[in-house]
Amino acid sequence: MGERLLNTTATVTIARNGRLEMYRSAANTPAFWEAQWRAAPPLRMRNQPIPSYFRHLVERYLPRSGRIIEAGCGNGNTLRTFSHAGYTIEGIDFAPDVIQANVAIDPGGLYRVGDVRALPHDTASLDGYISLGVIEHFDDATRPQILAEAARVLRPGGIAMISTPYFSPLRRARAALGRDRPRTPAPDPADFYQFFFSGHHLRSMLREAGLQPIATDTYDTYKGIKDTIGGKSLLDRLRGLGQRAAAVVENAPRPIRSLAGHMVIVVARKPGAPPAAG
User: Is 14 within the bounds of a domain?
Assistant: First the structure.
């Protein structure tokens, strides 16, 4: 979601098995994320709308009534934009210090320490589940566990919105040119940071967890282009031309962001009919 992250080691990317792997530093522990959120602490987000990147998906699919969680809420900034828009949403994170910081800045909000691998919620108790840039930090054994938990806690008809870094056509072209080939010596597995997935791969993972994908989009062309082929100074100059130009650079029209976006997001529904009212 564009949070400023600490980066103290060199970054290595490797394309294999239909995805992109990034090695920098392990990002699957509370201690790692406590450090990140000290660098990007919670903000009140007053008068800030749900990010335009995926607002259209939220407004179309996420239920206005009922209980929603953000699994892996981090600094809670995105969560508070949902709360300001009228959604009943609870933030879950396994880093206790950041939960405490969220409560301190938003004492009326809903926040709880919890693990996305074993959520503190009853089966079929939630209407919505949001996870933005979380599952990519976990290995192939743990990631299905996280998605199975999402399916477990949703009611029939409930909606999940999952995003990960995008193994875009632009990134695949870079890999085809040999820029991200396996290398010797191989990176230390302990330094694994995250995966990048295609939309097809992310949808397949959701289906395997028992969720039915119903919509896919991509977002953040600024980072997708900057991190892949460079040109940050040019992109920044274009963004400086005005609000409309900045919007196009940051989140270009769909055909462009499908080629060069940084993130892919899939909306999925848990099969079955919602319980009858009353």
Answer: no
The span from the CA of 237 to the CA of 278, in Å, is: 56
Torsion sign, CA atoms 147, 153, 155, 156: positive
Do the domain assignments include residue 161? Answer: yes
4 in a structural domain = no
Tell me the C-alpha distance between 274 and 278, whole Å.
Answer: 12
CB atoms inside a 10 Å sphere around CB 56: 12
CATH number of the domain enclosing 31: 3.40.50.150
40 assigned to some structural domain: yes
DSSP string, 67-117: -EEEET-TT-HHHHHHHHTT--EEEEES-HHHHHHHHHH-TTSEEEE-BTT
For the record, the structure tokens of 133 come out as 């840039």
In total, how many domains does the chain have? 1
CA dihedral sign, ordered 72, 77, 81, 84: positive
Could you give the dihedral angle defined by the CA atoms of residues 175, 5, 150 and 208, in that order, rounded to the nearest 10 degrees?
A: 10
Query: What is the model's pTM?
Result: 0.92
Return the H-helix or E-strand segment holding 161.
strand 154-165
Nearest of 267, 274, 272 to residue 127 by alpha carbon: 274
Residue 147's domain comprises 25-168+187-219+262-269
Tens-level pLDDT at each residue, the chain (278 residues) = 434 444 446 789 999 999 999 999 889 888 899 888 888 899 999 999 999 999 999 999 999 989 999 999 999 999 999 999 999 999 999 999 999 999 999 999 999 999 999 999 999 999 999 999 999 999 999 999 999 999 999 999 999 999 999 999 999 999 999 889 888 788 899 999 999 999 999 999 999 999 999 999 999 999 999 999 999 999 999 999 998 899 889 889 999 999 999 999 999 999 997 765 54
